[in-house]
């Protein structure tokens, strides 16, 4: 007679666990704001901070000491324009932050590669009227990638969902001597309401329209597989599904179908929902983030970009 509960006792339960989650799988996003000098709490994301160029190295050092292996950097520039020019500035916020971190840690530095934090209209590409232009945006993305690699980025992560962005970036990197810099593509990035808190954190809300002209429709599954396949053909070294929790079916399918190194991004809304419930005493924060991360790993993620990376390291490692 089969009794499933025999193996659920302490000692055996751990031995037969099917999923291994550890700090080596986690990436901590960091927001760097060029206009501030002291770290500042992000209101829409309790527990997360805007770092300054001066403070980011110390934060990176703390993460390294805790055992967090990698960070994903977002920049908030002091000036924005139509073209998002500051994104490719060799002395731009991201480039300065990468250099500062690289000078005093050996953390893996991943740079988010998009224009939306740098454009005055807040869209992820050049615009004409209310149209977000695709092919006109590609050379700019190539320039941004090269400037990030020159600053010392270990991995570039294009998140703008422009068609052929991976090929354009790969070509530019190779041409400029960065053939060994990997691309982590936000391949299946959905037009999600769960990015809400991030838009305050990155101050990348848009002046008109929405992102549905380039980000994916949450109703679609097969399309995500196409997106991933195209990115792989264009040269992506790692692929990503974003958000994570509402899209675990997509994550599982991507991992199974392509067998590529696969990342999942547990986004700002996923974070802030749990934080908000925990603040009210409706959920246990630690148990909730541990379960959510375990489930994302179980669904097929090799790496998870999560705002709890630091907290995980603090509470669960060492
Ligand atoms: C920019 C970008 C966004 C996020 C990561 N890169 C916002 C967006 O596309 O609107 C969201 C991250 C999060 O919500 O945590 N292209």
TrEMBL record:
Sites where the protein binds Zn(2+): 114, 116, 124
InterPro entries in the record: ALAD, ALAD_AS, Aldolase_TIM
Catalytic activity field: 2 5-aminolevulinate = porphobilinogen + 2 H2O + H(+)
Tree of life domain: Archaea
Binding annotation for Mg(2+): 227
Keyword Lyase: yes
Pathway: Porphyrin-containing compound metabolism; protoporphyrin-IX biosynthesis; coproporphyrinogen-III from 5-aminolevulinate: step 1/4
Active site: 189 (schiff-base intermediate with substrate), 242 (schiff-base intermediate with substrate)
EC number: 4.2.1.24
Pfam families, A to Z: ALAD
Keyword Transmembrane helix among record annotations: no
Residues annotated to bind 5-aminolevulinate 1: 199, 211
Gene Ontology CC annotation, any one: cytosol
GO BP annotations, alphabetical order: protoporphyrinogen IX biosynthetic process
Molecular function GO labels: porphobilinogen synthase activity; zinc ion binding
Residues reported to bind 5-aminolevulinate 2: 268, 307
Assigned keywords, A-Z: Heme biosynthesis, Lyase, Magnesium, Metal-binding, Porphyrin biosynthesis, Zinc
SUPFAM superfamilies: Aldolase
PANTHER family: DELTA-AMINOLEVULINIC ACID DEHYDRATASE (PTHR11458)
Subunit-structure text: Homooctamer.
Assigned protein family: Belongs to the ALAD family.
The protein, known as: Delta-aminolevulinic acid dehydratase
Species of origin: Methanothrix soehngenii
Taxonomic path: Archaea, Methanobacteriati, Methanobacteriota, Stenosarchaea group, Methanomicrobia
């Amino acid at each position: 007679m089969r009794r499933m509960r025999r193996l659920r006792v302490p000692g055996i339960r751990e031995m037969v666990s099917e999923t291994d989650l550890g700090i080596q799988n986690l990436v901590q996003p960091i927001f760097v704001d060029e206009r501030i000098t002291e770290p500042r709490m992000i209101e829409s994301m309790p527990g997360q901070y805007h770092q300054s160029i001066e403070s980011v190295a110390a934060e990176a050092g703390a993460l390294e000491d805790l055992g967090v292996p990698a960070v994903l950097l977002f920049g908030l520039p002091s000036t924005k324009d139509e073209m998002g020019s500051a994104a490719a500035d060799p002395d731009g916020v991201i480039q300065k932050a990468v250099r500062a971190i690289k000078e005093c840690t050996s953390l893996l530095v991943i740079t988010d590669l998009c224009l939306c934090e740098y454009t005055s209209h807040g869209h992820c590409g050049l615009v004409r009227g209310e149209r977000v232009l695709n092919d006109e945006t590609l050379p700019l993305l190539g320039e941004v990638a090269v400037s990030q690699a020159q600053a010392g980025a270990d991995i570039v992560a294009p998140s703008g969902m422009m068609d052929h962005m991976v090929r354009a970036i790969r070509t530019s990197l190779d041409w400029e001597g960065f053939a060994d810099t990997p691309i982590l593509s936000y391949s299946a990035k959905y037009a999600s309401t769960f990015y809400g808190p991030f838009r305050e954190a990155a101050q990348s809300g848009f002046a008109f329209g929405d992102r549905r002209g380039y980000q994916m429709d949450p109703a679609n599954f097969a399309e995500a597989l196409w997106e991933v396949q195209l990115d792989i053909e264009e040269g992506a070294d790692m692929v990503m599904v974003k958000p994570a929790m509402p899209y675990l079916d997509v994550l599982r399918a991507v991992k199974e179908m392509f067998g590529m190194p696969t990342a999942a991004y547990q986004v700002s809304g996923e974070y802030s929902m749990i934080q908000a419930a925990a603040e009210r005493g409706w959920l246990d924060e630690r148990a909730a983030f541990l379960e959510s991360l375990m489930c994302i790993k179980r669904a097929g993620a090799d790496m998870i970009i999560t705002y709890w990376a630091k907290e995980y390291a603090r509470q669960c490692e060492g």
